Hints:
Elements: E1 3-6, H1 8-15, H2 22-34, E2 38-42, H3 43-57, H4 59-70, E3 75-78, H5 82-94, H6 102-114, E4 118-120, H7 124-128, E5 132-134
Parallel strand pairs: 1-2, 1-4, 2-3, 4-5
Helix pairs in contact: 1-2, 1-3, 3-4, 5-6
Amino acid sequence: xxxxxxxxxxxxxxxxxxxxxxxxxxxxxxxxxxxxxxxxxxxxxxxxxxxxxxxxxxxxxxxxxxxxxxxxxxxxxxxxxxxxxxxxxxxxxxxxxxxxxxxxxxxxxxxxxxxxxxxxxxxxxxxxxxxxxxxxxxxxxxxxxxx
Length: 147
């Protein structure tokens, strides 16, 4: 069974109906689930997402999102333990030409480790690092992720 990574940008777009890519991100997530894929994320991504939802949409929205992902049998959480943390640290300082966040580096490390090639996100860094980003950006779109 194939898996698909979901980054903070993807979770945020799905959670926020006012986000310009809400519908395409939800469609990508739903299509993956209909195809029998498992969604994969990390504890670092969940941390970042919960905080952003609380700040932008309120505590009730963060709680609703948490309840959905926490009880999902189709979501696999990967933990960033010490080995993964160290690999992320190496990535963080290796790619000096990119402004990767540390959470990006943990996600990229997990995706490489698990050989995942697709990610639902609004973050351009994943495309720069060679991953297939869903939803595909519209022509002429240079949307920066909201963080």
